[in-house]
């Protein structure tokens, strides 16, 4: 299987699942923000984000104007957020907490649409 298709399936399903969990239980958003004050949670989250970002970048660092660019940008975003949480935890958490919960809902709705797009590319559900 091509790396691009693999990552389109992975990120598509991940974003779809993430959207439905937060839609069914919106209190999770506030809980995630509250958990960012726990240093153990923060270190673990940063570590996982760095590992996922690095793996994504190592196996898929394609900068062409297609769905492949979206996958690459997700990997780089994960890496940068992980590094920021690990290196500058207080500043990064302060920045993330300033983000309004309504804005987070808009962002994860947009990520849902990205997930649907990636799954459509991976499985050729709707031909266009």
Radius of gyration: 15 Å
Shape: globular
Structural class: mainly alpha
Distance between the terminal alpha carbons, to the nearest Å?
22 Å
Number of β-strand runs = 0
- The tally of helices reads 6
Q: How many domains, in number, for the residues? A: 1
Q: Main β-sheet, in a few words?
A: none
Beta-strand level of the residues, as a percent range? under 5%
Secondary-structure element pattern, one letter each:
HHHHHH
- Average pLDDT figure: 90
Provide structural commentary.
The structure is a single chain. The chain is mainly alpha-helical. It contains six helices and no strands. It has helices at about 5-25, 25-35, 40-60, 65-85, 90-100, 100-125. It has one domain (about 5-120). Helix content is about 85%, strand content about 0%.
């Amino acid at each position: 299987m091509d790396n691009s298709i693999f990552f389109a399936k992975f990120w598509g399903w991940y974003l779809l699942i993430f959207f439905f969990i937060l839609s069914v239980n919106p209190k999770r958003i506030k809980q995630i923000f509250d958990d960012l004050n726990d240093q153990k949670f923060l270190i673990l989250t940063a570590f996982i984000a760095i590992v996922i970002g690095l793996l994504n970048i190592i196996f898929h660092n394609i900068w062409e104007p297609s769905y492949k660019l979206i996958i690459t940008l997700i990997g780089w975003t994960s890496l940068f957020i992980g590094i920021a949480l690990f290196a500058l935890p207080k500043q990064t958490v302060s920045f993330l907490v300033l983000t309004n919960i309504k804005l987070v809902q808009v962002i994860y709705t947009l990520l849902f649409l990205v997930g649907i797009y990636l799954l459509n590319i991976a499985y050729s559900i709707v031909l266009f």
